[in-house]
Design goal:
Layout lengths: L1 E4 L5 H11 L6 H9 L3 E7 L3 E12 L3 E11 L8 H15 L4 E7 L3 H9 L3 E6 L9 E7 L4
Parallel strand pairs: 4-5
Antiparallel strand pairs: 1-2, 2-3, 3-4, 5-7, 6-7
Helix pairs in contact: 1-2
């Protein structure tokens, strides 16, 4: 398995992984908009075809400061628990460190305990609960990894 930057030819595979991974998946057009965004970091795990992806951007706000915000991370169901998600997340963390970004941030559904445990194993901690975060009204937990301490 190798981690590489996504290309426009990966969009159909990314969209298929998204569709099978989430109860309220992003549309292919929304995913494609990230491919056109020069500020977005999109990586895929190849084996030799895409089996997982991560979408992230460096963002800043007065309230929360500068962070690499993970917008989406998914691995195809048959390929889960084989290291692709960990490899993608470790690559994103390494890039954040290289760029001097102090935190990596993401949101995860409150009900998604397996994802929460996965992120916690990599050092993320819950910093906030976000009621009605998702379009369907579902709540999320914001999790962060403070790279100044990790």
């Amino acid at each position: 398995m190798r981690i590489r930057p996504a290309t426009p030819t990966d969009l159909s595979a990314i969209a298929a992984i998204e569709e099978t991974s989430f109860p309220d998946p992003w549309a292919a057009e929304s995913l494609g908009a990230y491919l056109e965004d020069p500020q977005a970091l999109i990586l895929v795990a190849d084996d030799p075809e895409p089996i997982g992806f991560v979408i992230a951007r460096v963002e800043s706000s007065r309230r929360t400061g500068r962070a690499l915000h993970i917008h989406d991370l998914a691995v195809a169901p048959p390929c889960r628990r084989q290291g692709a998600g960990t490899a993608l997340l470790n690559e994103v963390i390494a890039i954040a460190r290289e760029q001097g970004v102090p935190r990596v941030r993401l949101e995860v559904r409150v009900q998604n305990e397996s994802a929460q445990a996965f992120y916690a194993r990599l050092g993320f901690r819950v910093v906030r609960r976000l009621p009605r975060y998702y379009e369907d009204g579902g709540a999320a937990l914001r999790m962060e990894l403070d790279l100044r301490r990790a």
